[in-house]
Each structure stands twice: as C-alpha cells, then as structure tokens.
Amino acid sequence: METIRISVRNLVEFILRSGDIDNRRGTLAEKEAMQMGSRLHRKIQGQMGAAYRAEVPLKREIDCDTFLLSVEGRADGIFTEKESVWIDEIKGVFRDLSRLEEAVPVHLAQAKCYAYLYGEEQGLERIGVQMTYANLDTEEVRRFRREFDLEELRLWFEDLTGQYRKWAEFQIEWRKIRQASIGATVFPYPYREGQKSLAAAVYRTVQRQKKLFIQAPTGVGKTIAAVFPAVKAVGEGLGEKIFYLTAKTITRTVAQEAFSLLKEQGLRYKVITLTAKEKICMCPEPDCNPEKCPYARGHYDRINDAVFELLTGWGSTQEHAEVSGVNDSYTREALIAHAEKWQVCPFELSLDMSLWVDAVICDYNYVFDPQAKLKRFFADGVKGDYIFLIDEAHNLVERGREMYSASLYKEDFLEIKRLLAPVSAQAARALEKCNRYLLEMKRECESYELLKDIGLFAISLMNAASRLEALLEEDKSPLNRLEQQDLNDGDGEALRKKVLDFYFQVRNFLSIYEELDDSYEIYTQHTPEGRFKLKLFCIDTAGKIGNCLAKARGTVLFSATLLPVRYYMKLLSGTEEDYAVYAQSPFDPAQKKILIACDVSSRYTRRNAREYQKIAAYILEMAKARQGNYLAFFPSYKMLEEVRESFEELAPGNVRVLSQSSHMSEQEREEFLAEFSEDQSGSLVGFCVLGGIFGEGIDLKKERLIGAAVVGTGLPQLCEEREILKQYYDRRDMDGFAYAYQYPGMNKVLQSAGRVIRTSQDRGVILLLDERFFHSRYREIFPREWADYERCSLSDVQGKLKNFWNRFA
Question: What's the average model confidence in pLDDT over 720-736?
Fold first, then answer.
C-alpha cells in the first residue's frame, strides 16, 4: 500500500491550530528561535547525564484500509527517573520565561505524540512528559511536567490522526489523477531549434540530482523547455513538487502560461502563484491584528475547511475528497475571492495551499531569504522531493547579497530610546548601551571602516531585543497599555508599530550575525544621508544559496544573460559538478544589426557637453535611419537629462522623446510603454536608465520596438560598498574589478540590448555607444549571437543603418 508520511510537528500544528492571527502577541521571534535553537538543544541534552537518550527516532504506521499513514518524528530526549519514563521536548524561545505560566498547547501536543509513540512501542501503561523551555539569549531553563495514562494518549492520538485522514485520502486520489495525466501529456508544439536538447538536459539534470546553468537567448522558449521536462520528471517519480522561482511579476505570468499550455492537453496539475502580503491583503494596509482585520480574527478556526474546499471543490462536510473537475490554478484573484468567502487571510491561505499543490510559482525570497522562506518546506531538517526552476537567475546574485546581509543605524537607536524613555527605563538603558558602542565605532570611522569583530555590541543588542520583546508581548506592559489608552488618536498604536518594526530589524541583524563566516565583511559607514550605518555584508553568496539548493532534488538556473556562466556558477553554487549549457538562438542573425561606436565614451573623464552632443547625434542618426520606436539606455539619470537636452536641440519635429523618471508608479510605467505603438507617425525615442524598470522584463514585439542604443558599459557607480566587494575578491587572487563592476555592468547592457529582438518577426538595430566595448575583457562576455558586430563612427553610422534597413524594404 502507498504510504503518506507526516511529521509529528506538522500534524499537531496543522490539525490543532485555532484562534486569531495576531502580530501583537505570542512568540514574535519564533522563526529566529527555530534557526538558533539547535545549538542550545545540544547543550541542554549534553547536560542531562549518560542515561539521557537524545534525538530518539519514533514512528507509527496506521492502516487506513487503502493506504498507510506514517507519523514520524524525533523525541528531543527520553530518560527514566524513579522508575517513570519521561519524554523531554525542548523549545528555544526569546521570551522572558518568568512570564510563561504553562506549556504552550501545541508544544505539549507534540510531546504527547512522542509519549504515545514511545509508550506504545515499549508497552508502557503510564508515561511522563517534560516540556523544557530555554531562553536563547540568557540560556535560562524552565520546565513543566505532566504524566499521562497510555490509554488516554491512545484515544487522543487516534482522534488527532482521524482528523487528518481525509487530507491523506485527498493526496492519494489526486496523485493518481495527476500521474495518469502526465503520462498522456506531450510537448505543446513543434520544437524550436535547440529546444528539444534543452528539455532533455533539464530532465537529465533532475534524474541525476544535479544543477544546470542555462544561457538561453531570447526566443528559445526556455520557460516551457524547463517546465515540460520537470513535469515529466514528476510523472516518473523523480520529484514531487516544482518550485518556479523568479524575481519579476512578468516572468511569473509566463510560467503560468506554460503550465496552462500543458493543461490544454489534459494535464491535471495544481499550480499556485504566491503574491506578496502587501499585494494580496484585502485591508487598506497589512496589519495582522484581530481588532483591525476581520480576516485575522478567528482565521485559524476556519482555515482548514477553507483550504479543503478550495482543493477539492467540496465543502468541509464531505467525507471524501472528490477532486475531478476542480479548477487547478490558484491565482491572486482566485485566492482573494475564496478568502473573502471564508473570511480568512488570503496571504496565509496561499501559504497553506502551497502544501497541497504540485507547483509553486513565487519570488526567490520564499526559498532563499532566511526571514521569508517557507519553513514548512525549507526549515533545517525538512526534506522533500523538490525541483527548482530558477528564471532570470542573473538577478539572484544581488538579491542573495540583500537577503543574507543586515544593517542597523545609530540614529534609530536614539529615536526608539527617546520614544521608550517614558514607557520603560530598562528598555531605554539597554538601547543606550547599544548606542554607546555605535558612538565609539562612529568616532573611529572616517568614511567607512572594516571591522573584525562586534561581539560585545551583539551581546548588548541581544539584551535590548529581549527588553523590546517583553514590552511588545506582555499584555500589561506600559507599551500595550499606552496603545489601548491612545487607540482613538492613534499615538500609542503608532509608537507600538515603530517599536515593532525596529524590533524586527534587530532580530534580523542578530539572526544574520549568527551566520557570520568568511563570506562576510562587517563595516561601518557614514551614509550620504548623514546617518551612521553598521552592516553585515554577505559578499560570497555561494555557500548560503548552495545550502538552499541542496534542498532540491534537481535545480535548473536559466537566463538570457547568464554570462560569463562561470561567474554565476561560482556565486550561485560553488561546486565543480554542475552542468552548463549554451542554448542556440532560433533567430536568423540577419534580423539584427549590432554596431559599436569607436569614437564616443561614457567614461567619467569624458563626460562633457561635447561628448553628450555626440551621443545625442548617434541616437538621432538611429531614429532617422528608419521611422519607428527606439529606446536609449543611460548609466544615470543625470546623463540621461544632459543628453536629452542636446537631443531635443538636434531632433526634428517628427521625432518625439519620452523619459523615464525615478519612482514611477505602475500606472506611469504602463502609460510609458503604451506610447510604443505599432502605428507610430514619426519616430519615438524613450530615454531610460540602464538596469532600471525598462531595461529588463518588458516585451515590445515587432514594430513596437525596432532599436536600442546602450550608452556605456553599465559599470555600477563608484561607491564604498562596491570597493569593499572589489577588495574582497582581490585579496583572494580573483579579478575584483570584474566581480564588483564589469560583470554586473555588462549584464545590464545585455539585458537592455535584449529588448530589441523578441520574436522571429522582429527586425532591429543595437548601438553600443562606448569605445570600451572593443576591449577584449568586454568582448569576451558578448553572447555568441553578437559575433557579427560591426565597428562604426558618427560619420558612417547612418550609411550602415540604411544598408541594414534596405534589406527589408
């Protein structure tokens, strides 16, 4: 019989949850406690003596007629005292243990499961449960004990597993339907050139449990070429759940369309798209407070029935899940509608649904970010048969650095100390001690300063975090009394929100501090805004990202700009056994013309009115060669404005100009792109910033875009953090300039140039306006499709462009 496995922890947390979502109470730092608790667990276990058995595996298989339900877990400890057997369950927490009056019910339920499993295995009539709570800051320990008759535990356990049975039956029935449909699914259209070999490489990667890096030029159809073989691998039992990871909303939509193509052939596959809490929340702003949010109030009382109905199409009174004919795609709109019906939080609904679906389309942070990753799949010790498909993987390097780094600002400590002084003298003193350490660092720092160790500051910060948590959690704390008193005018509420936000910043910093190794630099800096920053800066992300990728059975990372591929392999994996594939472009090289200007530069030393006029003249020559829509990309807003002034002086009346502005709203972005219509009278040139919102992820096909000028090599602006990056790699005998400046800059160039040729019907020109593109260190990063580039100057660029367009006249 097929076996459905569930851990003791997941079982009790799923079946026994109840009440409200409430960001004001409870274990605010539970996520961090889970990450930091294992070391303290081992210490407590080691102090319990030779008779104490630690990490005892326990399992019970329950015959459910058509399948086995296996409940599994590890008891933290088992010991005998005065002829009584005791199960020890250890929980690391940040809260003040003096305020803990009894064991948390869900923790006790977990221990009761272990007690029953062990008692049944050993034939005991009675067994004891010891709940051991340890404060992760102070290492203080508090214990609660209780004894049970085994018959009492048996009845309780059978009721618990009985409530889970319908969920297990759903899994069994759905898996049969899904697997049968996968076998009948074929590739949705004739393979493009290189697409079949790409799909085969993806399948082999999953089969061999490896990682594959794919440089996939635009037009290859990389999304469907990755999704189809991944689905087929699930059909062959090589994986159970696909995670399609991306950094942008547009690529999430493309992934949804790929699954829809396969479903049109009869594939039965449950797919959910996760949306950020801020974008799916049905309240004016996310505030998970049951007094403010009706969906948070009683959420856990209703959520399991809501999930079951959405999965099966049947109400919670149905004894068995009927899964045929159910809509298998769970988009933002579908989740909001269902959440409204059941009066539950749509964001939490989406996270719970992710447990039961076959594919999850989501942002990188749900897998990689230590603060946001889905603990139900990726917590320490949790394993699954996952397949990772990572789209636009070039973005993961900088995103990884953001996710594994943390910063604190001295000014924030002073502000929170001032706000809390009338409320809690203890908290204010703890914050002042942290402030004094930061003041000492500030005096030693001229512009920025690398630090070797901040251990003393971290100890003070832990103490401050504990004081803040006590204020936030204690019902009778001055802070919470103030919130109630000032509820009408909002002052108390605003104070609490400021303290809560600061508390989470502190906890995040401490969590990252626990992970410090030689992939980090610690530095202080006087920021341009006049603030003093302390940062834990993760530079080499390979170890952290590699640990996350190890959770998957197979991983495929792909992008149209994964060059040089060895750079990305080193920073995203760091192992020698990974595969790399360069997919062949399906487009005819004659569709495009790439020209490199030999007489212009964007170097800082050459930035003057004369050079700006020359750049403007190049862009005008491009727009005059053929009427149509063009984009011009610049290294900064300042240069964009300077060149635009020169361009408008030169341009005739039939050439219009649009400019990207900083902080454009979504509507403004859409209005900007809507101007690029196919029936343009005259020419339109959009002035944009390299690496900005229009340099990646936009799809202007056919006549909507026929050319792009890229000004400069995209090098990030000189700044202290880039210099820290450069020095880090230089000290390790690596090319610091390439890692800190050249490779990130060229990626922006490749992305911007890639806006031009999107389909086999497109025709277009690419102007690279910087003489540095002729240097070998830049040309060696060019994609293979650029091998036919030509040299040009301002005097002959018009002729070369005319010759290209005349071919299509």
Answer: 96
Q: How far apart are CA 645 and CA 660, in angstroms?
A: 14
Q: Say what the pTM is.
A: 0.90
String of b and e for 260-295 (b: at least 16 CB within 10 Å)?
A: ebbbeeebbbbbbbbbbbeebbeeeebebbbeebeb
Read off the tokens for 332: 């933002």
- Nearest residue to 330 (alpha-carbon basis) of 388, 274, 261: 274
Residue whose entry in the numeric block shows the structure tokens 């040009």: 792
In residues, how long is the chain?
Answer: 809
Per DSSP, helices labelled H in 407-555 are 410-420, 425-444, 455-473, 478-485, 491-513, 542-549
CA distance 549 to 559: 17
Dihedral of CA 536/538/543/549: which sign?
positive
Q: Looking at the predicted structure, is the pLDDT value of residue 95 above 50?
A: yes
Distance CA 634, CA 748 (A): 10
Tally of CB atoms within 10 A around 257: 12
Reported confidence tier of residue 315, pLDDT bands at 50, 70, 90: very low
Residue 367 corresponds to which tokens in the numbers above? 């897998």
State both tokens at 756: 């031009």
Helix %, strand %, coil % for the chain, to 5? 45, 20, 35
Which among 627, 769, 626 has a CA at the least distance from the CA of 710? 769
Q: Indicate the Cα dihedral angle 161, 165, 171, 176, nearest 10°.
A: 130
Write the DSSP string, 735-783: -HHIIIIIHHHHHHHHHHHTTS--STT--EEEEEE-GGGGSHHHHTTS-
Q: What is the pLDDT of residues 337-367, one digit of tens each?
A: 999 999 999 999 999 999 999 999 999 999 9
Q: Is 579 exposed, middle or buried (0-12, 13-18, 19+ CB in 10 A)?
A: middle
d(CA 168, CA 3): 9
Which tokens sit at 232?
A: 């087929």
| Residue 552 neighbours by CB under 8 Å, 6+ apart | 243, 386, 387, 388
DSSP 686-723: EEEETTSTTSSS----GGG--EEEEES--PPPP-HHHH
